[in-house]
Structures are given as C-alpha cells and as structure tokens.
Amino acid sequence: MTDKEFFKVTSLGTLLELIRTFPCVNDEVLPLDQCAGRILSRDIASRIDLPEFKRATMDGYAVQARSTFGASESMPALLTIVGAVEMGEVPMVSVKTGEAVRIATGGMLPDGADSVVMVEHAQALDEHTLEIFKSAAPLQHVIEIGDDFRRGEQILLKGSRIRPQEMGVLAALGETHVPVYRQPVVAIISSGDEIVPIEQTPGLSQLRDVNAHTLTGLIGLSGGVPLYLGIVRDNIDDLHSLCKNAVAQADMVLISGGSSVGSRDFTMDVIKVLPDAEILVHGVSISPGKPTILARSKQKGIWGLPGQVASAMVVFQVMVRPMLEAIGGLSEDHLGAAHEVSAVLSRNLASVQGREDYVRVKLVHRANQVCAEPILGKSGLIHTMVKADGLIRIDMNSEGLDKGTPVRVILF
Amino acid sequence: MTDKEFFKVTSLGTLLELIRTFPCVNDEVLPLDQCAGRILSRDIASRIDLPEFKRATMDGYAVQARSTFGASESMPALLTIVGAVEMGEVPMVSVKTGEAVRIATGGMLPDGADSVVMVEHAQALDEHTLEIFKSAAPLQHVIEIGDDFRRGEQILLKGSRIRPQEMGVLAALGETHVPVYRQPVVAIISSGDEIVPIEQTPGLSQLRDVNAHTLTGLIGLSGGVPLYLGIVRDNIDDLHSLCKNAVAQADMVLISGGSSVGSRDFTMDVIKVLPDAEILVHGVSISPGKPTILARSKQKGIWGLPGQVASAMVVFQVMVRPMLEAIGGLSEDHLGAAHEVSAVLSRNLASVQGREDYVRVKLVHRANQVCAEPILGKSGLIHTMVKADGLIRIDMNSEGLDKGTPVRVILF
Q1: pLDDT digits (tens, 9 = 90+) for B196-237
Q2: Quick one: how many helices (H) and strands (E) in chain A?
Q3: Class of domain A55-143
Q4: Cα(B218)–Cα(A353) distance, integer angstroms
Q5: What CATH number should be reported for the domain whose range is A340-411?
Q6: Which of A97, A376, B6, B75 has its CA 20 to 30 A from that of A137?
Q7: Please, which residues 262-281 of chain B have a Cβ atom closer than 8 Å to chain A?
Q8: Is 0.80 topped by the overall pTM?
Q9: Coil, strand or helix at A218
Q10: Which residues of A touch B388 (CB under 8 A)?
C-alpha cells in the first residue's frame, strides 16, 4: 500500500468509446421459442407475401361493393346468399354482383368479392335472402395480398433484440430457426483475503462474497452467461493463473477486487502480465466507481471492479453492461439503454465538479408528483442497494442540484 | 355463426378484481444464483448483525480520534505507527492514545481505535512516525457492528421480486438457498381450422400459428413457463380433451382462438363443460380485446384470447400478465407494473366512450420532445406490432385525445 496514489482518470465518454473496440461474439441458430430476448445476427427479409390471399377482418358477408351502393336503413340492398366460406379452405363459390357469401374473420375472400359487410349491417331474411343497410366501400374490412409484408422486404434488422412481437413476426414468416448472437460468457473472479464463500460463516474480520452474486444477477439480466470462478486470495500467482483461465473460457472477465488501494495495485500487477495485455483505463471520473480498471487481453475485456457492492453495481450499470451488450451484438443505438422515469428531487444535492456523480434514490409518490429521495448514509453499506429504486446522474460540470429540480431516474 | 350477438361486457376494473380470486402457486427452495427475477415466498430476516465487526471504509490509519484533535496542515499531530491490520485477520495490535495502525478499506478496526484517518490526510515520516494534518471525528470512516442489518431485522418481504441487489443482500446474509414461488406453468392451445404449425407451408386460406409464439415470449417475460400444447381443429371433442389435459398440467390456460364470432362461441361451449367450470367474463370493455373470455376450472384460470395477434398482445399485457404475476406470488402493489415513458401525442385520436382504448404508438424523438405517433392501418395486420414501441391508454370516459396532449406510453 502506498500512502498516496495519483492516477490519470479517464472520462466516461472516452471509456464508452473504448468498449466499442472489442469484437462481438459469433452466432448460433436456435429454435424460435428459445430466442426471446436474444439479438438477431442477420437481417431477416420476408420470403413470402403475407398474407398470401385476401382475408376478411370482420365477421360478415363477402360482396362486390357495388352491390351495396346506396343502401341504407330505409332502403336496404337485397342480395342473394350463395354460400359460405369455411375457415382454412379455399372458397368453392364465387361472388357476382347481387350475391353474398358468409365469411368469418380471417376467412379467404371468394373470387369476385372485393369487400366485406359487417354482420351488424346486414340481416338474413331467410336462408338465401340478405338485406344490407349500409353502403360498403371496395376493400372495406379486407386485407390484401402482401399488406403485412411483401416478398423480399427487410423485416427485422441484425443487432435488434427479439421481443415477443418479433417472435410472432418470425413465426408468421415461417422462420422456425433463427440466427442469433451467442450469449457472451462473463467470468467472475472475487479476490481478497477477507472474502469467504457465502456458505461459510465468516470469521471476525471476514466478509461473505456479496459481489459475485450481485454480478451474477446483473450479467443474466444483461444477456450474458455468468461463470463464477470462485474466490482467490491476494496471491499473485493464484490470481494470475485464474485470470488466464478466465480469458481462455470466457468472453469477458470481471475481477471484483477488494476496495483498498493495495488490492487495486495488486489487480493491476496481475492484469499487466496476462497474454497480450494492454491497460486501457485505470480510474474513471465518476463517483462511485473511480477505481475501475479496463484492460484487454487476447481481444477480451478484463474489468477490475471496485469492491464496494454499491459501487460495483453502478460501474456495471454504467460501463460493463453497455460493453456486454456490444460484444453480444446489440446495435449501437441501443447500448446501455435503460428504463428511466421522471421525478423531482426531494432535497438539495451537492456534487464535485469534474466527475459524474451517480446517486441512489428511492421513488416516493407524493400528492401529484413523483419524488426522487436520495439515499444517504455511510458508503460501503449494502442495504442502500435494496432501498433504492434507481440512480440519478449529476453532470460533470454541475456543482449539485437544487431541491425541486426535475431529474431522470435510471431504474434498476 | 349468428348474425348478431350481444353479450354483457365486463369493465377492466372488475376483471382486475376477479384475477385476485385465484390461488397462488406453491413454493420451492432454489440455490441463490438461480433466483434472479423470482418472487420471494417468505419474509427474510437477518440471522446476523452485519457487519459483525467494526470496519474501515477508507484506506488509512486506525486511531483514537482524540489523538488528532486540533491537527492541521501547519500543526500536524504526531502519532506512533504500532502495526498494520491484515485483511481478513483479527488485528494482533490495539491502539492507544497517540498510536496509529495502518488499515485498508474493509479492514477490521483494532481494539481501542474509534476512527480512521484517510491516507490523503497523513504522511509517514519513517516506519514508526506519522503526521496527521486534519482532525478526525469519532466514527469517521467506520462502519459499526449492525450498521447494515441488525440480527432479527426484517430485510426482504414475501412477494417481492429478487433483483441483483437482493441477490447481493441474500449473499451477505448467507442465504445460500432461497424460498421462492414456483414459476406458473401456462398452457397455450391454438384453435382454428385455418391455423397450421409454423414449420408447415400454409396452403391458400391458411395461416401460420403466430399467437402461440408471441404468447411464448410474453409468458417467459412475465415469469411463467410456457407449455405449448399445439393446434386443435374446431372439433369440440378434441378441444375439450386438450383443455382438460391443460388444466391438469398447467396453472393457467390460454386458448388462442380464431377471431370470428363463431370461433368464440365454440371456445365458450368447450369451456362451459370443463370440470367445475365457471364463466367469469365474456367480453371486456376495452379495444382491442373485447372478445376476451375468462373462466375458472378447478381453481385455475382459463382465458379465451382474441385471435388477432395485436389484440392478443394487448389483452396479455393488460389482463393476463397481472393475473400470471398474481398467481406467481408477486405482491399486489406490483401487479402489472409496466415501464412507462412520457410523450406528447403527435395527432388527434378519436375514441369511443364507454370503453378503454389501447392504441399502439411509435416513439419519435423530435427537437426537445418525445412524440407518441399512433400506428394506424387495418386491424389484423401483424407488422404494426413490431413497429410499435408501446401503448397509450384512452380512458373510458374520453371521446378522444387532441394532438399535443401529454400521454404515458406503456413500453412493450
């Protein structure tokens, strides 16, 4: 441990540029129903016209629109019912002027018909005779061939996330198997002489390994596969061999070190001697999270995270998640997108110029507004994490925010 | 098919009361790392004081605060360094007045020490002599026993969702295995003579089974386990036996019927004769989604969903999801909670009084505001689903919304 340490910090903006220099993982082809939340690795074009036939969008009667022109409640048009369309079958009948065919929503329009009259605007007088009370326009309640998608049309873009609605569209196109990026594997290494596994009762002066489990949850939510490699004592050979191992097995490595300057130096020493190692960032101008390290080994990202749990969460949210999404193939304009809500700050908050501050807040609904209430208290406490609903960001150039300021709360 | 059909519709509010009458699933105990996103089935109290020892929150020197009183840059206090605290070890030394012990963040305070002086406010003149430039207050940079959690304190509540931060807290408490509600199994049955499996090339007049796959995605995102039972033709015996089967295997059943009145009647006929069947709702005063059916069989919910894909999605979001969450054990105040953003309506929207309208919108960022742009077009089209970012709700008592009205967009 040195008494004083100075290191050149990197701005968050620069760091977010750096994370885009890492290559993304390769892809795989999965059955459609396993693709929820995954990232498309190819553009998807339609191989068909959809629908491939004219469909009714209402229950009623397929007609030629001209047979109904001028019809009204007082002067209904009189048509002859010449049959019915069975669902899922090609109609056996066709429709001439003055004729009508019963049809249900989704049914295929018979030849000759160009419009559908809703059941509410018609009345069958007997099996063959139909009164229509309203003039129908051509193509009314009809979906035409290719109205949804045209053959060859680009439907979904590479790099987009597959939501339930995209699953529906892929189903409609007959894409039973879908090309998606592999989920990046993220190794977690906990280091520190004071850290014990959670199943162990910590001795006095020891602590359970909280970060590994918070990170496991965060990695999963961000589309990665966590790979917990365990706890390593502050022994340079052990940490080095575990890190080499991690780089070989995983697409990204998180080293959750102790929070002391000593432990950070130690992590730096280990990273420096990894294969093809390059230290990219040693210190970021945000708070909490300043002691963050980002390095590259064999084209893979190695993070040294702060040991304090709340700091590690903020660093993950603001920096690690966008990189995990980027190497997972998500398109640039969606990286790090978070759900935010508007609120009003409940008290004055001081901040230091020259760094971005992230403050944990609780949302409190009062009268007509949502207040963001900063969660204060000693740093290093775990319980502040579960009391918080989200984070607010205070700009690098701000000296603080006044009570009543409108803020955006990044939910977590 | 009947020419006209009248049915008594239920308000959304009444339906949302009804869904709370279904029992929730039982629970299971899982390894902590498998609990992300799951719902706690028991309150969790702390079995320990956390921390169990006084910890430093900064790198520096453990001292008696009184040894530093009056210290300044020009008149530093002079202390004797009597040792160092090793991480993860109980200190071998104690601290008397005028003495200091090196300590790192997270280290255990030695006996006698009541304060930590940051490394930035001290300078070691030699191995044994320390200058301190700033007066330290008692308990400065110290976390005391139980500051985080006190033994016996309620920490997490039954019915709350386990986020990464809750995983961290559970780790800190040594909860290696966690009681959570089982994930409800939701059976999906597609019915309709026109529906074919997605791997099949539909004949003219047929359509691929889109809803089953949209619903699979939605169920997964809502904490359920989808169980796709396949497509059944409009044959009353087949649908009845598949439904009985579904009620036996699943915690909830979704029948994604055709959209025609005929297919709805058919679904009703089948549901009525299920064991202990009770029709609770037949028609809801929302649009789209009016033809929704909710019934109960053997204490389980059976839904008849509209066949149109966009309508089925809205019904799922607004009604099925809250029920799925409720039977999955989520506490009442979180049911159906959705991420929303504020926006301004880009054009006038008409609405019909007496029903709630849900309109699909796209978010467009313009100048200084986010606009919600309604996605219009023929009903029954699939592509409107993937173009939309969310839904806006138009109140039952409203005749519509004017361009420029501030709206809340429910993201999906």
Answers
A1: 999 999 999 999 999 999 999 999 999 999 999 999 988 889
A2: 8, 28
A3: mainly beta
A4: 44
A5: 2.40.340.10
A6: B6
A7: 262-263
A8: yes
A9: helix
A10: 165
